[in-house]
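Private note to self, pasted from the team thread so I don't lose it. C-alpha cells:
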C-alpha cells in the first residue's frame, strides 16, 4: 500500500521547532503508513502545492497567512483534506479569522512549563481509546474562541480550578480537524501518549477504519490465583471480547460460564480450535505445555499470549517464534510486571539521570520456607525454581540494561534442604553485559536473612529498595550530593492488554515481543547450564 504524504509546517518563535519537527517526522514515519515532509515555507499551503498531500500538520507560531496561503489551506480541508494542529498551531495566524474558525480555538496565554496531569474524556474515540490519564511536562495552553458544543472533546487539564481543553476533533466541510494543545518542546514530543495521539489523530482525520471487536479465549481457566478471570477482566477493559474457554476440569468450566456469561467452554484445545473462531488465545497452563499449545494455536491461525515464562528452552522459543512468523500472527508473553510500580520508578529514576550510567544491579527475591507441594515445585513441569518469579526478575534486569549479553554464570543449589520437591532450593545468576554492567539475580527458598529486592549502582549515584513502597536514592548529579526517598510509582498491570489491543486494532508496536521473552529464557537456561559446567558461558548471538 502506498504511503500517504503528510505536510508538516513548522517555524516561529519560542519553541524548538526544528528539533520537534525531526521527532515528529521520525515517529509518524515509523508507522510505515506515512511519508512526512517538514518545512517552514508557508507557500507550501497554496492550492497547487497541497495537491500532492493527504494531510497537513501545523506546529508553527505567529505570523499571518497570505490570501493564497489561507485559501489553499482552507480549501484543502474543506474538500476532504486532513488537518492536525499541535500546540502552537493555536498561536499561529490568529489574524486570519477564517483559520481560527477552522481550527476551533485561538491561543490566549499559558503558564510556565510544569508537570501536570491530563485527563482523557473521549474514551470511545479511536484517538484516545485505551489511553489512561497521564502526566506530562509541558506548557498548558489556555484557549480563546473555543466553543465546546462544536467539537468532540477528548482530553482536558485543570488550571486554577477550571477545566481546559487539551484535545478535540471537529469537522470542517468534508474534512476533519484534530487539535492537541500539548507540544511545547522535545519532552512533550517524546512522550509516548503524545505520539500515540498525534498518529491516531492523523489516522482518524484520514478516515482510517477500525476493525471489528477481537474475540479472545483462554486455554486453562485455572484454579491458582483465579488467573483465567484475571486475564479476561483485563482483556475486557482493553476492548477485547472473551468468548471461549478450554479447561479439562468441569467445575472450572462451570465457573467460567458463571463469571463470563455467554462464553463457550471446551474440554480440549483441539476441540476449541476446531469449533470456535476465537481470534486470540491466552495460554494459562503449566510451563512445560506452553510451546506445544502455542504452536498448535498459531498453526490454526490464532494470535497467542503465553503466561510467563514463555517456555522452558530457547529451542522451544525459536520454534514458537518461527510458527508465529509463518502464520503471520501475534505472539507475546504476559510480562505484565514490566508495569509494577517499583520497576516503573526505577526506570524513571535512571531516565532522569540520578544514577548516571548503571554498572551494577542486584535483584533478590525469596525467603526461608518449603516451596509447596504442587506442579510449580516439580522441575519436570515448571522448568525449575528460576522459571516462576525469576522470569519476571530477569525480564526486569534486561529491560534496564540496553546492551548485549557477553557472559552468564549460574550457581544453583539443588538439594540442600527441601529434598521432597524437585525444584532447586536456591538459584543465583550473574549476567555480564557488553557495556560493562554486571547484574546479580538471586532466587531462594533458603534465605533465612533476606536482601532488599533492588540495589543499583551508577556512575552518578545509587538506589536501594528500603521497603514500605519507596527507594533511597543517593545522587551526585550536577556535582551536588543528594540523599532522598522516592516512592514507587503506581502499578498499571492493565497496560499489558491495552498494548496488545493497540497492536491488534491499530498496528501499534508490541511492548512484549517474543524475541525479548526468548532472551529471558536464554538467560535462565544458560545459568543452569553454567552451574552444571562450573564455568561462565557466552550466549549465542542469536538471542544475546
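Design output:
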Amino acid at each position: 500500500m502506498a504511503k500517504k504524504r503528510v505536510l508538516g509546517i513548522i517555524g516561529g518563535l519560542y519553541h524548538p521547532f526544528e528539533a520537534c519537527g525531526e521527532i515528529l517526522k521520525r515517529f509518524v514515519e515509523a508507522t510505515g503508513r506515512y511519508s512526512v515532509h517538514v518545512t517552514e515555507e508557508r507557500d507550501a499551503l497554496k492550492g497547487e502545492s497541497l495537491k500532492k498531500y493527504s494531510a497537513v500538520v501545523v506546529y508553527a507560531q505567529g505570523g499571518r497567512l497570505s490570501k493564497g496561503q489561507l485559501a489553499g489551506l482552507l480549501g484543502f480541508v474543506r474538500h476532504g483534506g486532513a488537518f492536525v494542529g499541535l500546540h502552537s498551531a493555536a498561536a499561529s495566524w490568529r489574524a486570519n479569522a477564517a483559520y481560527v474558525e477552522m481550527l476551533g480555538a485561538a491561543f490566549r496565554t499559558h503558564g510556565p512549563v510544569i508537570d501536570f496531569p491530563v485527563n482523557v474524556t473521549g474514551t470511545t474515540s479511536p484517538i484516545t481509546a485505551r489511553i489512561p490519564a497521564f502526566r506530562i511536562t509541558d506548557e498548558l495552553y489556555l484557549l480563546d474562541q473555543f466553543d465546546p458544543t462544536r467539537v468532540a472533546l477528548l482530553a482536558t487539564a485543570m488550571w486554577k480550578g477550571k477545566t481546559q481543553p487539551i484535545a478535540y476533533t471537529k469537522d470542517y466541510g468534508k474534512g476533519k480537524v484534530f487539535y492537541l494543545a500539548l507540544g511545547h518542546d522535545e519532552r512533550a514530543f517524546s512522550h509516548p501518549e503524545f505520539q500515540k495521539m498525534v498518529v491516531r489523530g492523523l489516522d482518524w482525520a484520514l478516515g482510517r477504519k477500525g476493525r471489528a471487536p477481537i474475540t479472545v479465549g483462554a486455554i486453562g481457566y485455572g484454579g491458582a490465583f483465579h488467573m483465567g478471570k484475571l486475564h479476561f477482566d483485563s482483556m475486557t477493559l482493553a476492548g477485547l471480547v472473551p468468548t471461549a474457554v478450554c479447561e479439562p476440569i468441569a467445575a472450572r468450566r462451570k465457573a467460567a460460564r458463571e463469571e463470563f456469561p455467554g462464553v463457550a467452554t471446551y474440554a480440549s484445545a483441539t476441540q476449541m480450535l476446531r469449533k470456535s473462531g476465537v481470534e486470540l488465545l491466552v495460554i494459562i497452563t503449566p510451563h512445560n505445555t506452553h510451546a506445544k499449545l502455542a504452536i498448535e494455536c498459531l498453526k490454526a491461525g490464532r494470535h497467542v499470549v503465553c503466561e510467563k515464562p514463555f517456555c522452558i528452552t530457547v529451542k522451544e522459543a525459536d520454534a514458537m517464534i518461527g510458527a508465529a512468523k509463518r502464520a503471520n500472527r501475534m505472539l507475546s508473553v504476559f510480562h505484565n510486571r514490566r508495569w509494577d510500580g517499583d520497576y516503573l520508578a526505577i526506570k524513571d529514576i535512571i531516565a532522569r539521570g540520578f544514577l548516571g550510567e548503571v554498572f551494577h544491579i542486584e535483584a533478590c527475591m525469596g525467603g526461608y520456607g518449603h516451596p509447596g507441594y504442587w506442579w510449580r515445585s516439580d522441575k519436570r513441569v515448571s522448568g525449575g525454581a528460576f522459571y516462576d518469579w525469576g522470569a519476571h526478575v530477569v525480564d526486569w534486569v534486561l529491560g534496564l540494561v540496553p546492551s548485549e549479553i557477553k557472559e552468564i554464570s549460574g550457581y544453583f543449589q539443588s538439594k540442600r534442604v527441601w529434598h521432597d520437591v524437585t525444584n532447586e532450593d536456591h538459584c543465583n545468576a550473574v549476567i555480564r553485559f557488553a557495556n560493562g554492567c554486571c547484574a546479580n539475580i538471586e532466587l531462594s527458598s533458603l534465605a533465612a536473612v533476606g536482601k532488599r529486592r533492588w540495589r543499583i549502582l551508577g556512575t552518578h549515584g545509587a538506589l536501594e529498595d528500603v521497603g514500605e513502597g519507596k527507594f533511597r536514592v543517593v545522587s551526585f548529579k550536577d556535582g551536588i550530593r543528594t540523599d532522598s526517598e522516592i516512592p514507587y510509582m503506581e502499578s498499571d498491570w492493565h497496560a499489558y492488554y491495552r498494548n496488545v489491543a493497540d497492536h491488534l486494532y491499530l498496528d501499534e508496536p508490541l511492548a512484549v515481543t517474543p524475541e525479548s521473552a526468548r532472551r529471558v529464557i536464554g538467560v535462565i537456561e544458560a545459568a543452569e547450564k553454567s552451574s552444571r559446567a562450573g564455568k561462565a558461558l557466552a550466549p549465542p548471538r542469536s538471542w544475546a
